[in-house]
Write a structure and sequence with these properties.
Structural class: alpha/beta
CATH superfamily of the largest domain: P-loop containing nucleotide triphosphate hydrolases
Largest sheet: 6 strands, mixed
CATH class of the largest domain: Alpha Beta
Shape: globular
Low-confidence stretches: none
Number of helices: 11
Strand order of the largest sheet: 6-7-8-3-9-10
Strand content: 25-35%
Bound molecules: adenosine-5'-triphosphate
Order of helices and strands: EEEHEEHEHHHEHEHEEHEEHEHH
Distance between the termini: 59 Å
Radius of gyration: 23 Å
Mean pLDDT: 87
CATH topology of the largest domain: Rossmann fold
CATH architecture of the largest domain: 3-Layer(aba) Sandwich
Number of strands: 13
Length: 301
């Protein structure tokens, strides 16, 4: 078996004049969850499309389970499951009918299809709605059905493009449990997300993409510690957050920040000092120093 489930080296992709990926390098070990974070338009979907052979890269290489995404497309396709935001579910069919149909299309016999459908309905908590048409489903049920359909044939690597976008907190947590169970079964999972908490909860490794490059990667804890020391929050007496300023955690920096803020904030402002969150990591890594000081200026003006 090759060392990594996913290996990307020097990957570049442009659309016309728009250089979207400017030389990406990353590796994802077998049986782990990798989360790719980045602002809108950073190239997350483009990367998933390249890794799943839907788009060709301009330069560089990418391997899935050891297979090259350009030269060994067939083997790559046989190694992956892909769930986007719009999976191939027929709205007028029930989840049971959808799964049975897709099982048959995947080459399973009638008896195997029945068995696999039962198993997937149970695994994705869809048994109670298995006879209801998919168009009547909530967002969470629909997303679980999308995922079940994409996992009819068990493959070692799963790509999830924003799997919980638009879901409420309960449905999101239910899907997280399913994703963690898939990891326990040995699957390697590559997901993109807009939710920093999602990356924090699920991922073994998080990478942040910005300006066409991976600007940071590591565990959630490593990324948080990179942002530096403590964050000082300033709250008014109506419990509204007035400002949240990252500091090095050192006495001089904390004192300077307090001095700066005292000039503009009311005397009854309350101060809360906390450790950096994934939100702070994201802001720090995807916002230029000029933007950050402009924000501080805005609070002070
Ligand atoms: N087929 C295409 N033709 C031309 N431009 C494209 C194409 N696909 C993507 N782009 C452009 O590439 C850039 C990256 O898009 P992509 O969808 O990969 O970003 P993303 O990080 O997934 O964003 P989001 O979080 O908004 O989904 C965008 O500027 C987009 O307009």
């Amino acid at each position: 078996m090759c060392a990594y489930a996913i290996e990307v080296a020097g990957l570049r992709k442009s659309f016309g004049q728009n250089a979207v990926l400017k030389g990406l390098d990353l590796t994802v070990p077998h049986g782990t969850i990798f989360a790719l974070l980045g602002p809108n338009g950073a190239g997350k979907t483009t990367l998933i499309h390249i890794l799943s052979t839907l788009t060709a890269p301009d330069e560089g290489s990418a391997r899935i389970a050891g297979y090259d995404v350009v030269r060994q497309k067939k083997e790559v396709k046989q190694s992956i499951s892909l769930t986007g935001q719009f999976a191939a579910v027929d709205e007028v069919l029930t989840s049971e009918e959808n799964l049975r149909m897709m099982c048959r299309l995947s080459g399973l016999s009638s008896a195997e299809s029945r068995e696999r459908t039962k198993e997937l309905l149970r695994q994705f908590d869809l048994e109670s709605v298995s006879n209801k048409r998919a168009k009547t489903y909530s967002g969470g049920m629909r997303r679980r059905l999308d995922l079940a359909v994409s996992l009819i044939v068990s493959r070692p690597v799963l790509f999830l493009d924003e799997p919980t976008t638009g879901l409420d907190t309960v449905s999101r947590r239910a899907l997280w449990d399913i994703i963690l169970r898939l990891k326990e079964q040995g699957m390697t999972i590559f997901l993109t997300t807009q939710y920093l908490e999602e990356a924090d909860e699920l991922a073994d490794t998080i990478a942040v993409i910005n300006g066409g490059r991976i600007v940071a990667s590591g565990t959630a804890e490593e990324l948080k510690s990179r942002v530096g020391g403590d964050v000082i929050e300033f709250w008014n007496n109506r419990d509204e957050l007035l400002a949240s300023i990252p500091t090095s955690g050192g006495m001089a920096d904390v004192r300077q920040t307090l001095n700066d803020m005292m000039l503009s904030l009311p005397a009854d402002t309350r101060i809360h000092i906390r450790k950096p969150s994934m939100d702070d990591v994201f802001v720090a890594l995807t916002t230029s120093a000029a933007d950050t000081s402009a924000k501080k200026e805005a609070v002070l003006s």
